[in-house]
């Protein structure tokens, strides 16, 4: 991903923001929404931002611990910036797919071996998937009946989204822990690629897929070697989910809804379901699907507090805006800031490494030092 591609994705995100505003205008009473936003309790808004920063720190902690454990030469500041830049690159790419490629590039740039960085990123991803499915399964067990009563036929999207997440986790576990499964998968891949049009399109990916399976198996071996660190990484990931999912509860308080504290866990579940339903959406940040799912889930929840359907819709759209701007746009800016800090520090370090070479060869007329263009290319 080059700088030009980053700019194109940012333009797309800006366009999505405009579409979001149009969606709000069409679905709700824009004057009432604006009134609620302008009269929101600023203290709760700052509380929500503070909780979001706690989410960022706890979410990043797992990758920081894993990388520092494996590569002690990496400074804490660089580890923090590399882990946090994920928020930016995931926000601007479909299916949140841009974070790990950048992190692999950044770790390699800091001198970490490819096998080590790949293992660390896979362990971190496995930790995330375990937490995501554990939390999702818990909430489905606890709140399935209540959620089914509220959204009826749409419950299928929730079950399908959860099933996809669970399949991903099961495949990761099987590929990493059972070697014959990896061999069977590659045999199946070779068999399918014998079909000409499939082979032409995907045959070149064989080595890449084989390497992924090998790296996954190595990652699970590394988990056993650093089991205590991995458990700590999982726990910090779980904590980050609580912070992230709690933002709508705080948003409800911010706009003056006297929500019962007993419904705190219920709002965590609804937010979890929102993101699970929106897993289908291929836009950056799941834009479009996330907003629709949020409204669909939170409107019946607000109605339970005695509001009419129209008022509940307005309230759910208002808290959705607060939640979305803090969890998506604010975090995108946070990640972009850390990315800029990383680039500035890396550029300075690289200049310091070049200067001794330049000074040692300045008297040699036969030596020419070519400086590369300072354009950052992130290989995917």
Short description:
The chain is mainly α. It is built from 16 helices and no strands.
Specify the helix fraction band. Answer: over 70%
User: How far is it from the N-terminal to the C-terminal residue, by CA?
Assistant: 7 Å
Structural class: mainly alpha
Arithmetic mean pLDDT? 83
> Which outline best applies?
globular
Order of helices and strands: HHHHHHHHHHHHHHHH
Total helices: the number is 16
Taken as a percent bin, the fraction of beta residues is: under 5%
Report on the structure:
The protein has helices spanning 3-27, 30-38, 42-70, 76-84, 86-91, 99-109, 114-151, 155-177, 179-192, 196-202, 206-225, 227-245, 247-254, 264-277, 289-303, 309-360. It is mostly helical and 380 residues long. The termini are close together. It has one domain (57-349). 79% of the residues lie in helices and 0% in strands. Helix 3 (42-70) runs antiparallel to helix 12 (227-245) and helix 4 (76-84) crosses helix 16.
